[in-house]
Amino acid sequence: MTKIIRRKFLSVAAALTAGTMASASPLTAKTDKKQLVHHVFFWLKNPDSIEDRDKLVEGVKTLAKIETIRKIHVGVLASTEKRDVVDTTWQVSELMFFDDTTGQKTYQDHPVHQAFIKNYGHLWAKVLVYDVAEV
Q1: Is 55 helix (H, G, I), strand (E, B) or coil?
Q2: At 74, is the secondary structure helix, strand, or coil?
Q3: pLDDT, tens digit, for every residue of 80-102?
Q4: Among 61, 38, 42, residue whose Cα is nearest residue 122
Q5: Model pTM?
Q6: Contact, 90 vs 43, CB < 8 A?
């Protein structure tokens, strides 16, 4: 390979590598604005009831209709390694992302959320909420 062709090849390869690395980097690729995270944990009145758990999951998923929720994740306890720092006492979790506190307030007052509480509230014994502002 001649010196000029080799230099051109190396220049193009380096540029392509740099471009790929920049687009893959989570620090440089992030363009989203900071969000408010709303994480809720539910403890069922009947913690061993798969039927009650599935019914509550069904109810939580209805909340996705609320227009200010940017993303929702509904989950149940994972079968991961047991450690002292892991709380395994809850049964259902919802994790929601909002643009801001106004969007979260809209969610709180929304008729779909109020219907969820009315129609599924009999299933849980305890609810714990963590609202987190991204920094």
Answers
A1: helix
A2: strand
A3: 999 999 999 999 999 999 999 99
A4: 42
A5: 0.75
A6: yes
